[in-house]
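Appendix B. One record, verbatim.
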Amino acid sequence: MTFFSLRFVKILLIHFNLILQQKITLVSSQTSQNINVLFINELDNDAASKAIDIVQTYLKKNSNYGLSLQIDKIEANKTDAKALLESICLKYADSIENNQPPHVIFDTTKSGVASETVKSFAQALGLPTVSASYGQEGDLRQWRDMEEIKQKYLLQVIPPADIIPEVVRSIVRKMNITNAAILYDETFVMDHKYKSLLQNIQTRHVITAVADGDSARADQIERLRNLDINNFFILGSLKTIGQVLESVKPAFFERNFAWHAITQNEGEVSSKRDNATIMFLKPVVYPQNRERLGQLRTTYNLNEEPQIMSVFYFDLALRTFLAVKEMLQSGAWPANMEYLGCDDFQGGNTPERNIDLRQAFIQVTEPTSYGDFELVTQPGKPFNGYSYSKFEMDINVVQIRGGTSVNSKSIGSWTAGLDSPLVVKDEEAMKNLTADTVYRIFTVVQAPFIMRDETAPKGYKGYCIDLIDEIANIVHFDYTIEEVEDGKFGNMDEKGEWNGIVKKLIDKKADIGLGSMSVMAEREIVIDFTVPYYDLVGITIMMQRPSTPSSLFKFLTVLETNVWLCILAAYFFTSFLMWVFDRWSPYSYQNNREKYKDDDEKREFNLKECLWFCMTSLTPQGGGEAPKNLSGRLVAATWWLFGFIIIASYTANLAAFLTVSRLDTPVESLDDLAKQYKILYAPLNGSSAMVYFERMANIEQMFYEIWKDLSLNDSLSPLERSKLAVWDYPVSDKYTKMWQAMQEAQLPATLDEAVARVRNSTTATGFAFLGDATDIRYLVMTNCDLQVVGEEFSRKPYAIAVQQGSHLKDQFNNAILTLLNKRQLEKLKEKWWKNDEAQAKCDKPEDQSDGISIENIGGVFIVIFVGIGMACITLVFEYWWYKYRKNPRIIDVAEATSTPPGKDVKLAEGIILGQTGKEYEKANAALRPRFNQYPQNFKPRF
């Protein structure tokens, strides 16, 4: 009985529960709002598809929402608009036929044909729509410039995947990036971002999809680098980011490159790179949303990746359906809405809708699961293109070592928005992620523009190095510099191919061509030049400086040696003859002393006096007293005449000789060089000077062919031929002959070879070098044995070369003009051409207007010193001869005694020197000089 009673009670309880559940279900079905939804999704948008399913499940499990969904799904074809429209119309027609027309279209197509088809369908038939398509204001072409009434029920909310790329704009602004390559994969849609992403920002950028395959990605990065890009942004999944990083050469992770990885995923980036540091940005959940998101993940299995997108679709769909429910329950939704079929649409018969879905959508208070909705509420501002899901992205510095991320540090954050700035916590770490702007410079060593210097920071010094450093301080960049392999600035061959620096720029292997590079028309076709940094520079001639031999005794070379010997012989002969005549002539002084005893001047012409007389007769001082005898005077007169002629002839020839030695006139112009055949000449092989002469020769040949065709044209009438009969060939063959002579002389390959040939020139085999005037002027400045000849011709400016279309052209133009205004370029010229430490200290070359140099007349001073020296030696000899060779006899001298006045005292015995003499007569003199008193029998020896 007891068992039966318990069992009966249990059955009654179960029955009561079943009845209660049926009643609850009946009440719930009576209060639940049914909404018909036309869900249009792209084929591969699994996140949206999974989100809608979970929304449906979520509403079923949470009956308190009082909402049930009837969802018709359409998977959109991305490429076939016609097939998609037919599918939509068919599904739409079925719903109308079943008396279940859609209350709202939930559109998760991203962009392109599918999105445009859905937008056209919804607008044409006036169906309320909430879209999660990609695009900002104006990007949805079918919803562009809609009437105000349509803007109330045709809504778009920008998904996170379309907001995330906006962080690139914020990074570029924050870090002042001037170039960027933006790579993206299929998780991002960038078709509409090409123009708007970095609009009104001075940043050269390329937006392109990531290539498939490692080699293709490596080539893609290489091509982007050749476009002078060193800032790379990777927008994609974690897998794509890792693949791109692994495809890049290690050199692309040096200090002159910056890598920014941006993803929708929440994981960590991984790559097999050995050494790389990147900026990594990923979305993070707001703290207030974490509990709700965790519930959706665990309870409803909302785990589709990328999670931010799947949660966004969930929140957007739920908000949409709640807005429609609210309108249905409040009576804001029209009771008898008119639905127009696809076939009934005629182009202008769209039903008028009085539906303010936008206001209801804004007023929904349902909490979000990841980030908040940022919806436009201001009147007059468009809702579409400005409403989006607001979330936060974390900015990290990630260091990859040995294939794993060894360190990750958060340095800031970015709040998703259309114009939201970065919030940086560590400015220093942010600066370290900035790519140093490093340009590749190729050059040709040519003093003083570019010279090797191991002690210099870049290994080079010169005018151009100082110039590029000044420009770098203005434009803010660094550079690497290396020499071009062939040592050429760049010329085009017969096949139209270039060499040298020009080829490097064309092949994108160089960013800048630096050096004494002439601006030429053919070069400007394939590369760009900045404004000239150096004035017009032409071609000029360099030759060996003629050396005028100098000698201290150059005045002796006026007369030949045999002439000097003859003059010397005549001098001695005349002196000897005058001595003989004076000694033998009875009318001479020495043979007739009594006759000339009263004359004031008494000159005995011994041999010594004759030599002196003939010597002084050659000077303006004169010879002094002439001989007394007539024969001697005839000899003196003859010598005077001879001396006058010799002196006059010597003086005239000395002036002429010194003048003629400075009248050695070399080649003074290009015409002089062309007219002679003694001196060989040539420019550097491959230089602009060579191109000039080669082309001038070709032009002369072309003119000759034109003249020949006109002169020998058989089609001309006799009258026309007669008009040309007097037309001589108007163009000379000057350059044709010069070009032929240059080829015969063999063009030097290097400047050093050309200088060596000039220095090895002789009178018989001369060589002249034709080159840029600046190079030649510097060589002349630093070498005393070289000289510039003639005037410059074919003048061209020097400028810096850059790649065609490069942004550096405008930047460098502004910098060079700034330096020009500050007179910095003038200072550089003075430094390297006037104050250069390598400048040689050369002797001033003699000019016809200059006087005689000390090198040529200094011998006369040596003659004076030699004469004085000989006189000193003679004086010493005389003193020695007199004191020691004469052996004078000294006799004791008795001192005179003093006598009283008035008494006669006998004088002391006198002093006899060398000969017997008489006593001195003076009483007060005991000693008398020997050279004031001669013995009576004294007779001169000469």
